[in-house]
Every structure is written in structure tokens, then in C-alpha cells.
Amino acid sequence: MGKTNKDQIEQLRHLLGNDSVLNGNDCLPYESGARFDVGKAAFVLRPATVSELSAAVSFCVRNSIPIIPQSANTGVVAGSTPDPSGTQAVISLERLRNRLEIDAENRSVHLDAGYRLSELNARSEQHGLFFPIDLGADPLVGGMIATNTGGARFIRYGDVRRNTLGLTVVFADEQGSVVKLGSSLRKSNVGVDWKQLFIGTCGVFGIVAECVLNLEPVPQQVATALLVPKSLDAVLPLLDLVERRAGPSLSAFEGMSGNAIAAALAHVPRLKNPFPQREYPEYAILVEISRSWEAQQSEILIDEQLQTMLSEIWDSNDELLEDVLVGPSDELWALRHAISEGVKAAGKLVALDIAFKRGDVMRFLKRMRTDVPAAFPDVRICEFGHIGDGGVHFNLVVDRDSANAADPDYEGRIRSLVYNIVVNEYGGSFSAEHNIGRKNQVYYDRFTDETSKRLSAALKNSTSPSPLGVPVLW
Questions:
Q1: CA distance 162 to 148
Q2: Which residue in 112, 229, 251, 447 has the fewest CB atoms around it within 10 Å?
Q3: Of 362, 346, 364, 472, which is closest to residue 423 (Cα–Cα)?
Q4: CA distances from 309 to 123, 234, 256 (A)
Q5: pTM of the entire structure?
Q6: What is the DSSP string of 17-53?
Q7: What are phi and psi of 283, to 5 degrees?
Q8: What does each of the 474 residues of the chain score in pLDDT, given as a tens digit?
Q9: Helix, strand, or coil (residue 322)
Q10: Burial, 245: exposed, middle or buried (Cβ in 10 Å; 0-12, 13-18, 19+)?
């Protein structure tokens, strides 16, 4: 490390404290991502307050050091790790966790960006509330806002954008300007809703330091089932029937391919196999309905409601359903949430997060069962997704024994084939939830129109003119 870097680290330790500045091997945990992306940081800063975050950002800007904001580093598109140059500073939000204040009357929480989703829900549950973004991972809330996380219960509760009331953001300018946007109010039409610029934009316009989030009542009654459709063509008609009969009590309609289910069960043997007497189906759907109130003596039990509804659908639409399995909610959700790690362990993983109009989801998946094997015969499709909102985690697993698993260009060819079809033929999104990152930068450049790029460049220059974040949105 050169003298200049040593001097900068000493200045930063004087500014922030020794515990807030890491260098050398201490940076290693912050240089590797969830999907094997690895870089090299100049140093890692871990501010513990908003004022320290502002000071850290200001120092980096004044010394022309590019900044990579990092939340819990659970992303899969290389959006929170440094590049190999060793010139970028990682600013971790993990110690930014002083404030977590719940306003039960307002059903909201004001908290720092360094709290994990699990911590937020544990504290909120004491008031009978929860933050309704359901994930298999346990991210920090700052990262959830930067990537506009959706999750498995989007169909009922929406995404992070829908549940964010206010933000405090630090700009990448010489002052490390701290700006408060929005508040605990749900209705305020006094001007532009500027906080939306910082939700789902990868942190390149500013670093989220604090947030005010909407909370929902914890469901008091929950019933789940696995549906086995007779074909992929039956999935969307089933969704329509379930939505019409369940109404607002429908909280999840999650699709899982047989390959994805097999990968989860192989990776986590303790999971209960819901299909012990048969082969895994080509496709299965996890349906959940829920109520926010405790069971009332005068109403039908929620399990009976679900079973009656599914029986009526089966009896009147026998061309759609092959099987229905009703089981404990925790067991079925454990299987669903184990898929991400299961497919990761199954081979070389190419994880594509895509979205469509709902009517195109199954058309695309049906087509891919022909197109992918024709172009890449050593690839298994292990997709799962949020069929109710059009989102698909299109996971492609390259066999470990294939020579292509070690080919650095192979993943790019797979992504290009799939994304070209998604965007050009279906008008879909090549990044539904995971955001841009280095893995998707080339596709942002390819598919984004020049007017949008110019507007993004103007906004970036107005808020954070210095290098901030991985994607280049201009």
C-alpha cells in the first residue's frame, strides 16, 4: 500500500475511530459477494451514525475515491462489491443501527439503514406488526430500499417502494449532504415525491441512511397448499380462479419447477418432501391465504376456507388441477425459501431475475423448455417465481462436469440469449428485483433508451456528482 493510502487511512481513523476503518485482510468479508463475485477494496469504512456516514462520504469525495455502498451484501448481481482495481472504498452500513422507533398507532417504524429484516420484524412483532416483505435472505433495510425488494407476498402487500414513507439520504458531494425526504405521513401532496428517486436505483443517487416504513398487522390465521397443475398452460387460469375466490385474503401464489424443488430437497435433507409417493411434478404452486384477525366463532376456519375453495376449483375445472396437497405453512415455506441455496449448490448457477406481464409468464417458461436445451444442452432450468406479480427467478444451472462451467464467456452467452428474448420479444424486464450491478450493466447499456440515460445522468449529477455505486446509470 502506498504512502498516500496509509495517510488517508490514518486520517479516516482520526475522523471516524479505529473500529470504523478496515484495511488489508480485514476487508476480505466485504470484497466477496453472494454469487462468487470478488474484488479488492482500497479500504472499508463502517460508520455508526448518520453524521459519521456523511463525514466518510465527504472524505472520499474530496479525495476522489470512488464509493461502493454495501448493505448486508446478499445481492446476486455484483452490485455491492468493489472491482479488482483496489481503488474503491466500500462503505458498509452494518453499524448504522442506533434508531429503531415503532409508532404502533401510525403502523410505521423509523429506523437506521443497518438493521436486518429479521431484527425489524422481531421488534415489530411485539406490537402485533411486521414489515411485509418476505424473503429467503436476511438483508439490511438500506439494501432493500436501494434494490426495491419485492418478495413472495408482493401480490398482497406490494414491494418496498409501496411500503416506504420517508428516507434520509447522504449525497456523494463534497459536503456529504444529508437530505430528509418524506416523513411518517401517508398522504402529503406538497411537491415532488423525491424519495422515489432513491428506491430501486442501486444507491447511485445517494446512500440511504434512515427510513420510515409502513408496517402491517401480523396475520393471525394462515393456510397453505401446494397445487400441481396438469400443465404449464393451466397456471394462469388457476391464478385467476384463486384470486376471484380468495379476494384480498390471497397473500401468495408462488410457482416452483420440479428441478428447483429437487435442488432444494437435495441441499437441505431435513426438509419434508411433499411428494414422497411420486416423482417431482414439472411445476407446483404454493398458495397462501391469510387473515389479520384471530379466528371468530361465527366464521369458517381458514383451513376449511382454503380446502373448500380448492375443492370447488378442482370439481368445476378438472382440466386444470392434477393434485392438491394441504400442509403446514412452515414446512411448505421452508421448501420454497430453500430453493435459492439449493440451486446455488447444484452447479454453476446463472441467476436471472426477470419480469413479464402476467399473461406472458408461462408462455415464456414453456418456450424456454425448448430454446434453452437447444442452445445449451448442459443447462438445467430450475426456475421459481412470483407468478401473481409476473416475476420469475430464472435459474439456469450448468452441470459441474461440463467444461463450460469454467468458461468465463459462457454465462454471458446464456444471459444474452435469455435477455434478448425477454426484452425484445415479450417487452419484459431483465432485472425485476435484483437490480443492475456489474452482471447486468451491459444489458442496461443495451436496452435502455438514450433519453432515459440522459435523464439519469442529470439526476445523478444533481444529487451525487462523484462516483457512487456499481452501476453506471448514465
A1: 9
A2: 447
A3: 364
A4: 35, 17, 21
A5: 0.92
A6: -GGGEE-GGGGHHHHB-TTS-B--EEEEE--SSHHHH
A7: -155, 145
A8: 444 588 999 999 999 999 999 999 999 999 987 766 789 999 999 999 999 999 999 999 999 999 999 988 877 777 789 999 999 999 999 999 999 999 999 999 999 999 999 999 999 999 999 999 998 789 999 999 999 999 899 999 999 999 999 999 999 999 999 999 999 999 999 889 999 999 999 899 999 999 999 999 999 999 999 999 999 999 999 999 999 999 999 999 999 999 999 999 999 999 999 998 788 999 999 999 999 999 998 899 999 999 999 999 999 888 999 999 988 999 999 999 999 999 999 999 999 999 999 999 999 999 999 999 999 999 999 999 999 999 999 999 998 889 898 887 999 999 999 999 999 999 999 998 888 888 889 999 999 999 999 999 999 999 999 999 987 765
A9: strand
A10: middle
Contact status, residue 385 vs residue 255, Cβ threshold 8 Å? yes
Q: Quick one: CA dihedral 424, 421, 335, 277, positive or negative?
A: positive
Spatial contact of 215 and 121, defined as CB atoms under 8 Å apart = no
Task: For strands 384-386 and 250-257, give the pairing.
Answer: antiparallel
Q: Amino acid identity of 181? A: L
Cell of 155: 401480490
Polymer length of the chain: 474
Per DSSP, helices labelled H in 149-287 are: 154-157, 235-246, 258-267
Task: Return the DSSP state at 168.
Answer: E
Q: How many angstroms separate the CA atoms of 310 and 314, rounded? A: 6
320 within 8 A of 234, measured Cβ to Cβ = yes
Sheet holding 108-112, edge to edge: 100-103, 108-112, 207-214, 164-170, 178-182
The secondary structure of 91-126 as a DSSP string is EE-TT----EEEETTTTEEEEETT-BHHHHHHHHHT
CA dihedral 334, 335, 341, 345 (to 10 degrees): 140
